Description:
By secondary structure, this protein is of the alpha+beta class. The chain folds into 4 domains: 8-56; 71-116; 144-293, 2-Layer Sandwich (Nucleotidyltransferase, domain 5); 318-380, no CATH class. Helix content is 34%, strand content 16%. The strands form 2 sheets. It has a 6-stranded antiparallel beta sheet with strand order 6-9-10-11-8-7, with no helix packed on it. It has a 5-stranded mixed beta sheet with strand order 3-2-1-4-5. The N and C termini lie far apart (88 Å).
Amino acid sequence: MDLVTMSKAELGRLEVMERLQEKRIRQKAAAEVLGVGIRQIKRLLRAYRREGAAGLVSKQRGKPSHHQIDQGTEQAALDLLKGRYADFGPTLAHEKLVEREGLKLSLGSVRKIMIAEGIWKAKKVRQEQEHPLRERRACFGELEQMDGTDHDWFEGRSERCTLLVMIDDATGRLGALSFVPEESFFGYCGLMQQYLAAHGRPGGLYTDKHGIFRVNIPNGSQNDNLTQFGRAMQELEIPILCANTPQAKGRVERVNQTLQDRLVKEMRLRGINTMQQGNAYLPEFIRDFNARFAVQPRSSLDAHRPLAAHHILDRILSWQEPRTISKSLIVQFKNVVYQIHTDRPAYALHNARVLICQDAQGKVAILYKDTPLEYTIFHKQKRQAEVVTAKQIDRVLLNQSKAHKPAPNHPWYRTPPISK
């Protein structure tokens, strides 16, 4: 007597076929029970009458799947995953294997290969989030999240630096990226100028409590309620909102982690080794990133506003400090004494209030009633001790340690003789 091995589903089919054979059920009802069409019921009934229970067993059992990966493709993928893409995650590795290497395989197949070879471990199920998710804004440009992330972006091929990021809250679109040595007023001004040229003025900015965005220790004087960047955004009518916790601006925090993975590997594959090369590549990366990950906003309204005629960016996005001209027509700014030259009588500018504006290149303009004054540098004081913030101290010390390199014949390089 031959034994027939059947699955639970096949046993269910056998029961229905027996009832059909005994005419205790109609074909239409049998089709509804098994969830198939009447034509399939007729095929199963013919097989049952011809071969009995064995006719209901799948003919594919014990045979390789028609959808399995070709061995050559699997081996080629494995070689690349252990070589060029050794530290890539499954999603990014799959993109590169398909786009760059021309291999035809699915994301699930790549993940299975990596798990089987111990290249990647499946992530544990995330625990329930402690922070409630905030709903996205409705309109593109209604709120832009802004942050800077310090990282070894070039994996030791160049100095460690900071990437400044702007991402739209409603769509998750990257608005602007910029590599800078560190977070600074001029760095964020350059990022903002890039964004304004591409999109216009956003409805607001969502940032952390960095000293660039807000005054954290006011001392009660008149001008302490605004930082230089805060003053510039006020002139552009762009409000700044500061988050209490990193989780509150989770969208930009999460994209920072994504960039530290994807952007680093993209630059490695392209041989990008410096900040200048990186900044030249960023527009291409932004377009590709937005095409892959941006979502549609709930509203089709674009909340961006165009720049007004009185918004002169070169002046607004400059470092500005008021000064009073002395009787000898002298003003001092950042340890430099400037001598004012004018055709009008000297007494006309005595005790006059002027605005000193310095751009990112260090060029200084002295404005009196919005009119630039001519000047010469009268005296430049010696540089004092440098003021360094807590976020900058690691980079400053690292660069100073590399500033002097001993000569090849320096005694430090000489190996002392071993005494016997």
